[in-house]
Amino acid sequence: MSKPTLKGIYRPSLKAMIAFSCALLFSSCSPITSNLAGDDDPVQIPPPVDENQPLSNGSSPGSTPGSALVMLDLPAFNQRSSVNWGPILKDIVNHEAPGDSNSYGDMITLGHETTHGINSYARNSLNNSGKRANGFYLLNSKIALIEEPKMRKSQVAAFVPVPLRNSRFDLYIAGSPDWDDRPTYVLDEWIAYINGSAAGVELVKLGLWRAGWRDGVTGTMDFCVFSVALGMAIEKFDPAYFKANTQFREFLAFNLQRGMKVFFEGRKMPDFADDNLNRYYETFRDSQDAAAMRDFLYRTYGEAWVKSAVFTD
């Protein structure tokens, strides 16, 4: 993608992202969740499992990692269509949050930024759990809620190997200090990148991509790495959360598989192909620098699943 901005992340209101700078957005956003008016079926974060129960590769016994993720319904707010949209982008636009308004000529950016608004809506309006949590739009009218771990976002940086640190690392992981107390900020960006990339890849497949070359799946690959680093940081700094919180581990597995699938498809497309991107992935997959990341994934989800879902094109 072109150089990303922090627009739309953790907005105090969806309209505020247009009126204020990113720094002001971050400094003024309230962490307090709210309830939907008249909601008689409040959304709850799944309760943690028994802390003495083994991880079972991150899932319930006998299940595939990611398959036990608890997702909640989010009906569409809009009924819009365009000859320039594929089904994925149409899905995202039709879930654009109330009060939000996104108009971008770049279809990947449209998917990315609209996803930020939906995530913000889920965080501020659909979390009735009484816990600090974040919400994420996973397409097909589904969201997932993730409780905040007891750690700092800045603690994630040390788990990203030096060869995998790039401009997005500088901006989102080492930078963005105003949201240091909300480490799931990393996941907010990750899901926005995956959704935007998925929309772009689909447009290429449908013959609807007309924008020429751009880094259409690079951000998705970057944040797959950064989100693994988040998991490693949580395991170290909030081990009780990591062990007990099946929802987080399932979320990480579900979106690793989803994100890597989009990456593998996109990197073969001339419109998104990039030799630097391929080298980045190969460093993650093969280098000694990233061995600790692979070891974390193997012990959390099992080596066979990781090699199939994350490292098999």
Provide the structure class. Answer: mainly alpha
Strand line-up across the major sheet? 1-3-2
Q: Which whole number gives the mean pLDDT?
A: 85
Q: What is the count of structural domains?
A: 1
Element-by-element helix/strand order: HHEHHEEHHHHHHHH
Tell me the overall shape. Answer: globular
Provide the helix percentage: 40-55%
Q: Tell me the Rg in angstroms.
A: 18 Å
> Into which percentage range does the β-strand content fall?
under 5%
Strands, helices and their partners?
Elements: H1 16-19, H2 22-28, E1 72-73, H3 87-94, H4 107-125, E2 133-137, E3 142-147, H5 167-173, H6 185-205, H7 218-237, H8 239-244, H9 246-266, H10 275-286, H11 291-301, H12 303-309
Helix pairs in contact: 3-6, 4-6, 6-7, 6-9, 7-9, 7-10, 11-12
What does this structure look like?
- The chain is mostly helical.
- It has one domain (16-309).
- The chain has helices at 16-19, 22-28, 87-94, 107-125, 167-173, 185-205, 218-237, 239-244, 246-266, 275-286, 291-301, 303-309, and strands at 72-73, 133-137, 142-147.
- A three-stranded antiparallel beta sheet has the order 1-3-2.
- It starts with 15 loop residues before the first helix and ends with a helix.
- The model is unreliable at 1-59 (pLDDT under 50).
